[in-house]
Amino acid sequence: MELVWSKKLSVGNASLDAEHQQIIKLVNEVDRAIGAKNMARFSQTLKQLEEAAREHFLNEAKIARAIDYDFNQHNIEHHYILREMQLIETELDAQHGSWSASVAEHYFQFLSTWAIDHIDEDDMKMKALLVARPYHFKPGDFSD
To answer: Burial level of 99, CB count in 10 A (0-12/13-18/19+)?
Structure first.
């Protein structure tokens, strides 16, 4: 099932919204790779997703500091998801890229649930502070 970005997922910041859209796009590409039974593409896209998540988490931490958002629990969740992505990659490598469709689907469900929950539950907690800033706010743009 394809994930769809909508305005209701906006957290009130252009760069975070764009990163969230990219994460959703990559999760959808993971699903397409599974549907095509293309484990090489699955592995490649999973690595791209991990890198996009890592960059997003760094940017999100900078923004959280700039708006005085308590980021400790949020940061713990970031470390958890990155560790889970690395475990998925390790398991894929151990299976030489030949997962069963049901195992690949399980990991897609995990990733898609994480992507939506991360945006809709975790990042939405910052929205009240973000909407008080210009939509294109970046740390360092103003006196933080």
So the answer is: buried
